[in-house]
Amino acid sequence: MAAQSGCYESVTDFFANTDVFLTGGTGFLGKVLIEKLLRSCPDLGRIFVLMRNKRGKSIETRVNELVSCPLFDRLREENKSALNKVVPIFGDITQLRLGMYEEDIQRLSNVSVAFHLAASVRFDDPLRDAIKTNISSTQELFEILKTSAHKLRAVVHVSTAYSNPENRYVEEKLYPPKYDWKKLVQAVDRYEPETLDALMQKLSHNSPNTYTYTKGLAEQVCNDYSTELPLAIVRPSVVLFTIEEPVSGWVDNFNGPTGMLVSAGLGITRTAYLRPKNRINIIPVDVVVKTIILAAWKRGTIERACGPNHLPIYNSAVTYEQSLEYQEMLDRGKEYLYAVPFSRMIWVPRGYPTNWKMLYYFKLIFTMLLPCFLLDLLIRMFGHKPFLMKLQSRIYGSELSLRYFVRNEWEFETKQTNTLPTLLNETDRNVFGWYMPRILTAKYLENAYITIRRYLLKDPDETIPYAKRKLARMILIDRIIKIIACCITVVAIWRTQFAGSL
């Protein structure tokens, strides 16, 4: 049911003439959120983005690079001046007070909405680092907002749908804490990192990694501060390419399935240890961004008068029926890999996942490790630095960290999330609502594939004819090698049998 027009405050009015504070703005999700706010809320004040100097680049240089990426091309055409509203604020989420200068903290006085997206998404972080990044940063941000953001109407904390992975059906509610987050934050300064890592299994109740464990505890931080701040939590599932805005298929990182498709397309990955019929819950990044924006809007308008301890939680995910089977996703990927191949592939994109562990390691050794080892030797002989074995090591490490998730399945309740667009009037629904197809295949993956080729691999469309010719040659060589191998095998068997009959 849509909100009544008599007391309705539109989403654009909610963000008009006020500032926004954002952590994690340089990440995949953060960039899309910034772009959507600037493009769809033209009267927005400033967007303060917390960032630090990195790789010798100042925050001013980094913010210029951020708004120069292809994601902002549409905004540049429609309203280029809006890009000037992005203001970098120096800070570091692992530090006290987020490492911010006091004068910068004072600049947050006109902030009405804060988005906390910053987090470490590495599954293998030491517990100490994960605590500082995912738990302590949340507390530090809330303490700053309490004292400085006097016009605050909403704070949205972005968690993960896998913050309580022991539950295979995840409801839109807060789950019991696995530990006292305050004690864990204090332990960071009391114990050596090695001690904390040794205690991880006992402290975490057998959570699969430090990421899900600390993200779950960060939700408890939100619960404790919900009496003082207008908080909401959004839990995305596996965030991937845009489905619609500002362009279809945009992605800027190799995380998760994206890395799997790229390494397969380059001919490096030939197998994976997973259950092919298992489903992966993919949610387009632009849908997540709209959920985050509407969660803030609802918390600051419709739920503004809610009492203490009000903490709405939104699972930004698709239904089980909308989720993708790994086998289907990989099959679709192969179609596009052959239709529009990468020009830098080192061998024919081919290979299959398996649920049989022995077969997986056999294929890993003989179709991935051994060929890469031999190619590295060849590369070294020509005076170049070998890199393939190192790359395979990274791919294998990534596969190990993801194994828990690809070998299990989850279902997510999304009632509160699905209700958000129904609260909007028609104008807002056209801008901030979303439609999800019954199954995320075909066009969604196809659009993403060509974008991966262009922007991640820096492989321009002009190289497609060359890549197709290269693939055709590789397929021919691959067949010749297999025929020769089969002939040698047959001859060897025949000679063995013939020698045995003499």
TrEMBL record:
SUPFAM superfamilies: NAD(P)-binding Rossmann-fold domains. Residues 22-292 form the Thioester reductase (TE) domain. GO terms for molecular function: alcohol-forming long-chain fatty acyl-CoA reductase activity; alcohol-forming very long-chain fatty acyl-CoA reductase activity. Keywords: Lipid biosynthesis, Lipid metabolism, Membrane, NADP, Oxidoreductase, Transmembrane, Transmembrane helix. The keyword Transmembrane applies. Gene3D superfamilies: NAD(P)-binding Rossmann-like Domain. One of its GO terms (biological process) is long-chain fatty-acyl-CoA metabolic process. It catalyses: a long-chain fatty acyl-CoA + 2 NADPH + 2 H(+) = a long-chain primary fatty alcohol + 2 NADP(+) + CoA. The keyword Lipid metabolism applies. CDD domains: FAR-N_SDR_e, FAR_C. It comes from the Eukaryota. Its EC number is 1.2.1.84. InterPro entries: FAR (IPR026055), FAR_C (IPR033640), FAR_NAD-bd (IPR013120), NAD(P)-bd_dom_sf (IPR036291). Residues 368-459 form the Fatty acyl-CoA reductase C-terminal domain. The chain crosses the membrane at residues 358-379, 476-494. GO terms for cellular component: peroxisome. Catalyzes the reduction of fatty acyl-CoA to fatty alcohols. Belongs to the fatty acyl-CoA reductase family. This is Fatty acyl-CoA reductase. The lineage of its organism: Eukaryota, Metazoa, Ecdysozoa, Arthropoda, Hexapoda.
